[in-house]
Design goal:
Helix 7 packs parallel to helix 8. The N and C termini lie far apart (75 Å). The chain is elongated and about 95 Å long. The chain is an alpha+beta fold and 378 residues long. The strands form two sheets. Strands 1, 4, 5, 6, 7, 8, 9, 10, 11, 12, 13 and 14 form a twelve-stranded mixed β-sheet that branches. 27% of the residues lie in helices and 29% in strands.
């Protein structure tokens, strides 16, 4: 009988191992010496504003990212204003693990949820000297329980949220290499947690698409970016709050469902509704949706759109581009001709549709549909 290893394989956590790290700071997120007004302060690296920084040591990943996001900088880092991602779990707590944490150097000191202390570091000694040991805590009240988030914790804990994901360009090439972005502001942590729950409520899932969409590997695609907003910050005087607040710009994390996916989703929902009401739907519409073309839903079985702008001759449907509006109308006309011949037993003399303009095709299809309806009513 096999069993999970306590504290190792029973955590049900997504271990990204830092294969792909996304950051919002230039250089390290750790505190460094920052010089301002000829004085040194404890601060962080320069904020990248609207950009995200992608770091990885994986050579295969670097090759794919170079194709998708351009050449890296001198440090081998990639920069982008938006990152296309898939999410691994429908459970928010697994996709976006949050906590209040305090670190000493690179080691964890305390992790809590502002109700109980979850983990704590203790120093142990063996024959080789002292070493750090992280222990899980049970029923250990957090000193900040029921206190305001604006109050400083005695351990120095700060908000931390780790969003795990797959980069779209990597998973599209069957590279299941995990990615992660660590967020530390209260605004970002609260926003991402809330958005994930909102998406699940609206879509029912944030992982596998309920309808076919091969261009997204049948998953729900998201776009990760940053947006500048204004937030209220307390004014300080000699390290103390003055009781006043002022607006300051803040580059916040933004997470949205890919708009192209949402358009495709609306098309599939409309098709589902038409099918439920037993309304006729052209095969070309279904084929178009399976190709990922949401615009085909405009072409229902009992009508041909005649509202066109251009009247130029369009490419033949055998060209390698995706089927155009004219191509779809040609397909529909061929279906109507087949119905006409089946009803009358007479071969239909079909003109050369490829030589006709889009508007002429629409007018011809409308007339053919009218003739077919008249035959059915005899």
């Amino acid at each position: 009988m096999t069993m999970a290893i306590a504290g190792l394989t029973n955590k049900q956590e997504f271990n990204s191992l830092g294969r792909v790290e996304v950051k919002v700071f230039k250089g390290t997120r750790k505190q460094v010496k920052v010089t301002k007004d000829n004085k040194e302060y404890e601060g962080y690296g320069e904020d990248l504003g609207s950009k995200l920084r992608i770091t990885t040591e994986n050579k295969t990943v670097q090759s794919v990212l170079k194709t998708a996001y351009g050449a890296p900088d001198n440090n081998g880092d990639f920069f982008t204003e938006s990152l296309r991602i898939y999410l691994p779990f429908d459970e928010v707590e697994q996709t976006f693990a949050t906590s209040m944490s305090a670190y000493k150097g690179s080691g964890l000191e305390v992790k809590c949820n502002r109700v109980n202390i979850l983990q704590k570091c203790e120093m142990l000694t063996d024959s080789k000297g002292q070493y750090r040991n992280i222990v899980d805590c049970e029923n250990t009240p957090c000193p900040m329980r029921d206190k305001s988030l604006s109050m400083k914790c005695q351990y120095g804990c700060n908000a931390e949220g780790n969003l795990v994901f797959y980069v779209k360009e990597l998973l599209d090439r069957d590279l299941m290499i995990a990615g992660r972005i660590s967020l530390h502001s209260l605004e970002d942590v609260s926003y991402v947690d809330g958005k994930l729950r909102e998406f699940i409520e609206e879509l029912g899932t944030i992982t596998n698409s309920p309808f076919p969409c091969f261009q997204y590997r049948h998953k729900v695609p998201f776009i990760l970016s940053r947006t500048q907003v204004k937030i209220k910050s307390p004014l300080m005087d000699k390290g103390l709050r003055t009781g006043k607040k002022a607006d300051r710009p803040f580059w916040a994390i933004s997470l949205q469902v890919d708009p192209a996916y949402m358009e495709l989703r609306r098309a599939w929902l409309e098709l589902e509704e038409r099918t439920r009401r037993q309304l006729p739907v052209s095969e070309s519409v279904i084929r178009g949706l399976l190709r990922g073309d949401a615009s085909v839903i405009n072409y229902v079985d009992d009508a041909i759109d005649v509202e066109v702008v251009e009247t130029k001759i369009l490419p033949h449907k055998d060209s390698r581009i995706l089927p155009s509006r004219a191509d779809r109308m040609r397909d529909r006309i061929n279906e109507l001709v087949a119905q006409y011949e089946e009803l009358t037993g007479v071969a239909y003399n079909l003109p050369d549709l490829d030589a006709m303009t889009e508007q002429a095709i629409a007018e011809f299809g409308k007339a053919l549909k009218s003739d077919l309806d008249a035959i059915r009513n005899i």
